[in-house]
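Q: I have 231 residues here and want to know how they pack in 3D. Can you give me a structure?
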Amino acid sequence: MPSHIPDIVTRSASENVGIPQRDPSRRLIGICGGSGSGKTLVTHQIEETLGADRVLLIQQDSYYRDLSHLPFEERVKQNFDHPDAFDNKLLEKHLRELLAGHSVSKPLYDYANHTRAPDHHTIESRQVIILEGILIFESVRLRNLMDIKVYVDADSDIRLSRRLRRDILERNRTVESVLEQYEQFVRPMHLEFVEPYKRYADIIIPQGGMNKVAIDLLITKVRSFLENQKN
């Protein structure tokens, strides 16, 4: 990966053209944390409790850059835990569209081949949009869109065991490849681009997705927002 250049808050006049006006009745919740911390479990518990008709889940992983221009041997060598691995410009555009009440065509990512699938998935906006990802707090432009920022924390050994299980069962990876990627990329990137950014969190959930008390408090906060929209 090339040297990382952090994004900036300011925009040029041309970049501001065409940005949709945000619907004040919609909220964006960012749920961040290390790989295997339990982010997905937290987001699914919110969705199951409040209903998929009111909550939309967006995963940063869907916005990995397309590497189809590289030979497969080169794709597998890329650092997928670095901020530059994500197309945050497209992600920001889609979030702004969703927060304005519009639908978007979300990309589909092929994890086995490290390429973007030719098809897209059209998704409709909801009152509450949850953005989940390991590096969503690293981007100041994404952070500035969030109404609530949540950091899901878990011990490193637990995160590694969960990542092993996920990548082997869901992404057709081998144990050796997962461990090699963890040692070379995941751990150092976590220490540089994930852990330091939890200082931006409004809420920190320790023990990952198993912390029922903290998750219930978060759900209560989101439910309160939804109820207020009815009045």
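Q: Anything worth noting?
A: The CA atoms of residues 72 and 88 lie 23 Å apart. The radius of gyration is 18 Å.
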